[in-house]
């Protein structure tokens, strides 16, 4: 580039200075000697050269600045491409718009199924099904933040890989389908007890796809358009077979080799090997790491009543009807073993062959139901009452069973929101609990069975809660209709398969009060009355069937019966509040015709 100096005015006889070339930074070349000039001309000549150099510098800087402005224009460095699309020199917004346009042009290509191979199996996966997409905003941000040398911005070019996202759970689910039977689930290590004998299950690795690695491989293959091979990866449990054997030898077997003595301030009790085996657990976490622990609840259950030697159970406050009013009797606190450190203490001594003694502190335990709480439950009036009659007097086995279960349930308080289970309350009703043999229905006929007659109490209790408006949770009417019960609104019970349950769906406590005479059983519900009335409306009986006659082998176990009609009927529980019907609940049951059983040989 050549520059020329200023032309002097006509009256100025200063020589014209010619500059052949300029470089930046300017390099001064030695000038040839010139004739000496007068002092005035020498000063003017020096000033002219300074002004000229300054002008040249300004021009060059302006040129460089213009180039820099061009090179650094926009958010994305010039020369930057993504998927073959030039995004350089653009703002992020424009770059995103251009990239989306390019993706739209390649939509057919990017939506084409990906061929995936796992082991011996090959399948195609649709990108849309697994959420494969180019994250435009993240890609543009990556392109804008990429470092570029100054000269690269002027003359270079850079290809930025797009940021691809995928729904990893969906992709993994699709890949697992392809794995099929080639895969293998991880077998977790386990140590259990059969009696007091330790049994082991050794670990085995899983063979499956690795979610994160598979996602990376599939994302790369999607953009390249090439088939993808996803490897099957072995994943071994954290506890090896050798470590399982070590746990058996060092803990499981020594643990049940001898009892452990538990001492407290109230005395001591031996924990036998059988109870230790029940409580000692080896749990594997998701990674397959096997860790020993003591399940104190299982251990305590295995000890049974033997803990009574060192513990005092708390006693709830009770309520009974006295003089026609509910009366509260205060309960008492108890003492129980503080089990918070019991598991760790046991684990410390179980590997030992001697010195197998641990100590525990007793802590006070308050009753679940105190007199104060019981008195605040709103149990103040009789809400409902129901009576059924029986024959034979109190001397018959059936009557005694009815009285036994009534005494067990008498005084039970059901808290608001709680569900009462008759089987759960009484437990098994056997000879040890004072029950006797009496007729029960078994396989469609009456036979002697322990606890016969308890169904009559169940029906009486069901009707009491029914007319109190409480929620029926579980009940089952008898197979045959007995005239001593109200049709449909009745219930049987049998341990352990048939239960009777109801829920206290009120804001008040519910007290079950029972009483009996020589020929009747009565159940009353005490609480706070919330309904005006609860009544039953019946539909006519339908689908009536007649009994057949069945001859049975005569003998002590044969119980004759007169038979009864079978029929279907509906019962509607109608509940009123403030003079209006607020609930109308339908109960329906179909009774079979009870055969007429005759204890004799069938006539020929």
From TrEMBL:
Record's compositionally biased regions (Pro residues): 27-36
Q: List each copy of the YoaR-like putative peptidoglycan binding domain by range.
A: 241-358
**Domain of life, per the record?**
Bacteria
By its UniProt entry, which InterPro entries does this protein fall under?
A: Glycopeptide_resist_protein, Vancomycin_resist_VanW, YoaR-like_PG-bd
Return the annotated region ranges for Disordered: 1-43
User: Where does the sequence pass through the membrane?
Assistant: 50-73
**Extent of Basic and acidic residues compositional bias:** 1-15
Instruction: Offer one Pfam family short name for this entry.
Output: PG_binding_4
Keywords of the record, alphabetical order, are: Membrane, Transmembrane, Transmembrane helix
- Please give the name of this protein: Vanomycin resistance protein VanB
Q: Which organism is it from?
A: Micromonospora qiuiae
Q: What is the lineage of its organism?
A: Bacteria, Bacillati, Actinomycetota, Actinomycetes, Micromonosporales
């Amino acid at each position: 580039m050549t520059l020329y100096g200023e032309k002097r005015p006509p009256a100025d006889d200063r020589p014209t200075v010619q500059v052949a070339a300029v470089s930046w930074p300017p390099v001064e070349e030695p000038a040839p000697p010139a004739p000496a000039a007068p002092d005035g001309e020498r000063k003017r000549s020096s000033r002219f050269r300074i002004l000229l150099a300054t002008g040249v510098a300004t021009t060059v800087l302006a040129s460089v600045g213009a180039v820099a402005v061009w090179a650094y224009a926009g958010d994305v460095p010039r020369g930057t491409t993504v998927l073959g699309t030039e995004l350089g020199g653009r703002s992020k917004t424009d770059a995103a718009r251009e990239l989306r346009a390019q993706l739209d042009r390649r939509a057919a290509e990017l939506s084409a199924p990906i061929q995936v191979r796992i082991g011996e199996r090959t399948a195609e996966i649709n990108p849309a099904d697994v959420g494969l997409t180019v994250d435009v905003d993240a890609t543009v941000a990556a392109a804008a933040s990429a470092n570029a040398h100054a000269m690269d911005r002027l003359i270079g070019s850079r290809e930025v890989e797009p940021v691809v996202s995928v729904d990893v759970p969906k992709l993994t689910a699709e890949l697992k389908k392809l794995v099929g039977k080639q895969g293998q689930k991880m077998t977790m290590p386990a140590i259990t007890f059969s009696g007091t004998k330790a049994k082991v299950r050794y670990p085995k690795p899983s063979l499956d796809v690795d979610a994160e690695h598979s996602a990376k491989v599939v994302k790369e293959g999607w953009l390249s358009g090439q088939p993808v091979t996803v490897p099957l990866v072995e994943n071994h449990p954290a506890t090896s077979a050798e470590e399982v054997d070590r746990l058996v030898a060092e803990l499981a077997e020594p643990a049940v080799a001898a009892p452990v003595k538990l001492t407290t301030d109230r005395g001591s009790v031996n924990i036998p090997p059988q109870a230790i085996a029940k409580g000692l657990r080896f749990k594997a976490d998701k990674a397959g790491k096997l860790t020993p622990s003591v399940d104190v609840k299982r251990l305590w259950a295995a000890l049974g009543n033997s803990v009574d030697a060192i513990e005092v159970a708390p006693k709830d406050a009770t309520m009974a009807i006295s003089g026609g009013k509910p009366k509260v009797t205060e309960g008492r606190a108890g003492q129980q073993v503080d089990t918070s450190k019991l598991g760790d203490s046991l684990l410390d001594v179980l590997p030992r062959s001697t010195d197998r003694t641990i100590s525990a502190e007793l802590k006070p335990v308050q009753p679940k139901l105190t007199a104060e709480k019981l008195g605040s439950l709103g149990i103040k009036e009789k809400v409902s009452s129901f009576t059924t009659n029986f024959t034979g007097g109190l001397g018959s086995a059936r009557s005694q069973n009815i009285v036994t279960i009534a005494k067990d349930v008498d005084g039970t308080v059901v808290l608001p929101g709680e569900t009462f289970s008759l089987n759960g309350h009484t437990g098994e009703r056997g000879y040890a609990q004072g029950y006797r043999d009496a007729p029960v229905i078994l396989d469609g006929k009456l036979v002697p069975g322990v606890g016969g007659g308890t169904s009559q109490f169940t029906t009486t209790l069901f009707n009491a809660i029914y007319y109190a408006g409480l929620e029926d949770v579980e009940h089952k009417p008898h197979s045959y209709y007995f005239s001593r019960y109200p049709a449909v609104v009745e219930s049987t019970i049998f341990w352990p398969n048939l239960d009777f349950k109801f829920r206290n769906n009120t804001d008040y406590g519910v007290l079950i009060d029972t009483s009996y005479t020589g020929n009747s059983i009565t159940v009353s519900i005490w609480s706070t009355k919330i309904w005006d009335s609860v009544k039953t409306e019946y539909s006519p009986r339908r689908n009536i069937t007649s009994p057949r006659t069945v001859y049975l082998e005569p003998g002590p176990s044969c119980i004759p019966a007169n038979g009864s009609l079978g029929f279907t009927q509906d019962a509607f529980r109608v509940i009123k509040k403030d003079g209006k019907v607020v609930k109308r609940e339908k109960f329906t049951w179909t009774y079979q015709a009870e055969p007429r059983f005759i204890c004799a040989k069938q006539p020929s």
